[in-house]
Structure formats: C-alpha cells, structure tokens
Amino acid sequence: MKLVLLSGGSGKRLWPLSNDSRSKQFLKVLEDQDQRMVSMVQRVWGQINACGFSQSSYIATSKSQTEIMRSQIGMDVPLIIEPERRDTFPAIALAATYLYTYMAIGLDEVMAILPVDPYVENRFFDRVNSLEEVLLESEANIALIGVKPTYPSSKYGYIISNKHNDTAAYRKVQRFQEKPTEAYAEELIRLDALWNCGVFAFKIGYIIQMLEEKGLPIQYEELAKQYHTLPEISFDYEVLEKEDNIVVVPYDGYWKDLGTWNTLTEEMKNPQIGKGAISEDCVNTHLINEIDIPVSILGLSNIVVAVSPDGILVTDKSASPRIKDFISYNQRPMFEERQWGWVRILDDQQYDDGRTVLTKRVGVKEGKNLSYLLNSDRDEVWTIVNGEGEFIQNGNYMMVKPGNVLHIPMKTMHGVRAVTDLEVIIVQSGLQNDTNRIVELYSTWDEVAHYCVKI
Length: 455
Prior knowledge:
It holds the Pfam family MannoseP_isomer. GO terms for molecular function: mannose-1-phosphate guanylyltransferase (GTP) activity. Residues 4-269 form the Nucleotidyl transferase domain. This is Mannose-1-phosphate guanylyltransferase. By secondary structure, this protein is an alpha+beta fold. The chain has 3 domains: 2-257, Spore Coat Polysaccharide Biosynthesis Protein SpsA, Chain A; 269-326, no CATH class; 340-451, Jelly Rolls (Sandwich), CATH 2.60.120. 21% of the residues lie in helices and 35% in strands. The strands form 8 sheets. A 6-stranded antiparallel beta sheet has the order 20-21-22-29-24-27. A 5-stranded mixed beta barrel has the order 8-11-9-10-12. A 4-stranded mixed beta sheet has the order 14-16-18-19. The termini are far apart. The model has no long low-confidence stretch (mean pLDDT 92).
C-alpha cells in the first residue's frame, strides 16, 4: 500500500501566523518528546517514520509549498508537485497518475490518502495500515476511517453506516452528513455515526478508470499540463457522495483537527511562545509572538493573541473559527520560510513619484546559497549584518562579513553562499510601473563556482 499525504490550505484559518506561503501545517507551535518546537507536518512525518511507513509514503503539495516542505522535513521525502492549488479531487487524481506513471504501480495496488496535519496517536497509523486488508476483504471500492465522536460537533462531517457490530472490522456506509447543527449531531451520535477524518483508501485502478471515463489523461505529465482545467472540487463531493460501495473502519482513539486557534492551543504545552507576559489572573489564554516587540496580556481569559510580521490577531477562542471569513487583507506574505533559510519583509513603500522601495531581512543557513540571478528592473543594496559568506557579482568573487555594504545595479548577476549562518538587510528599489523579472542562471553553488567566477 502507498500512503499519500495531502498538503494544501489557503493559510487563513490560523492567520496571522499562516499565510499563502506558510499554511497551518508549517507553524512550529507544537513540542516533540525532546521539547523542540515542531510543525504539524514535522510531527506527522515523524510518526510515519516511527511506524515504518516512510518508505512507501509521499506528500502531494503545491509548487508554492515545495521550498518550505523541503526545509522542514528534508530533501529525501518524495513530493508529488501540483502546478497550482485546485482542491482535493484534482490533487488525488494527479497523485494517482504519478504513482501509476513514474513508480510503475499496478492498477490493483492500494493507495491511501491522509491529511498532512491530523493530531493523532501513533496507533492511528496501524488503523490506516489496515485499510488495505479491509478493502480487499470487503470488495468495496473505497474504505474510510471514521473517528468515534467525543462531542456533538458542528465542524466535522459525519459518516452514517449500518448497525454497529462490535466484532466487525468495518461497516457498510449508508450516507454522509456534512457539518450538521449540534442538535442534529447529537442525534447522529445516537445512531453511532462517526466523524469523517478525511482518511480513505482505494485501488489506483479505481481513479485511473474514472479519469478515462472523464476523458482526462492517465499519464502524470499530460494531466499536469491540463491541471488548470480540472474542476476545483473536493474528493468528498466529486467521488464519495456519488459512490455506493464504501465501507468504514471505526477508530476510537485520540484524533483532532488542529485547524483553528481554539483547537490548536489545546495541544500547545506552553501558553506562551515569544516575547511578552501573561498576568496570573488570565485563564486559558495563549500568546504566540513571532516578532521582537513584547506583548503584555492583563486580566483577559479564554483568548488568543497571535502576532507575526503579517499582522496581529486578538480573539476570543470560541470566535476564532470565524477568522477565515473575516480576513481579507490584500498584502504579500510578510514572512516566508525557504529551503535555504527565510525572508522577512520589514517595509514596503510606494512613493508619489512612482518609486517603490522594498526592505527585507534575509537569513541564509550555513552551507546554503541564494541562486545566481539578476533583477531586470530593480537595484539592490545589501548590508551584511551577521555571519560570513562568499559573494559573486558578475563573476567577481569576494568574502563578505558584518559591515560590508554591496551595491547591485539592475541587470547584474549576483549570488551568495553562507559560510556561517548569514543575515542580510536588502533594500530593493525601482519604478512601480516597471515589472521586475528575476532571471536565474544557476541554482547550486557548485555550478556558480565552476561557471561564473572570473579567473
């Protein structure tokens, strides 16, 4: 069985820490057993590795998330790259064609789908592993995992199945109910309904046949070219609700979707991350602060205060799920984690005379490098503020250290490699109406050193 983890999300539900380039699964707000701060994706991949599934697992993610994914879980984890975000049905279809085309997986091979960010015990993955046997034994087209509800939630979808048999490994699914009222959820729980946790399995041939029936390519490269034409629809709506032959495997262990601030803070071991103070009379209050300005919270209970370069959120925990519909700020991500380090926007100004000036702080990890590239319509001034590095500009090599100021005119090739952890303040300027293009010549430092240094 092949396990595919879906990594998507628009970055709004945990604003301001999450944004379009850093979705919720990449926020380092959880602690591992060694008390290190880890993200949801790091935690889940660690569990998959501990359970022995990493050699048969893949992560399906959008092109925009590739760098941060590599940064957090390493270069060796196999990624299936979506050209753009288009919901779960297109993502799963593309993943199936990838396994079929490049991994030579047969049509009878079982493929399991798992969100990249569930908060579960390790034994949950034993239940995932059982889906293959259940699928084959039941002769169903799809096998799901359903979580035994712990309260009548209106946030989750429900799976309604035939009468529960304690000795059976699975049940026949009758229908689905999407996000009922709490009153109806209580009735569903009395009927022994289960939460739909988004985990399911099917034979790869099931999706390949579906693509053929829809007149879509079954080869990965061809489907990727047509990806923008696929419907933006979830797998639940496009497939599950139309399929009659589905079974569900009950799971009665711990499971939680950490999709909102109130559910996420329930699993944070420390009520405070970052600079600031919470007074002793605050109850069930959390502070997450990613900037250097201290934040003080006095006499307020049941709230979350989240601070990042993207903005500030102060919310009652019960109201926090509304943030996705409330936030509509049209701004670029102010913090991005990259494969080679990170970028923080300090200032972004546009002036009456048509000039635009962008100031950012860039961190490059030891041994990593920025590509050798040029800006078509932007001048840059770099000030080295920490660490040492190798800098090349139009073939001229020099070592750089704190205090060095580098002027890089537009259309000038340049790149840097960090000898130690390197930090640079970059001021980029140009005319607002001139569309800046970035032209990259080489991405690895070996290529830059070999081809671009004047002798």
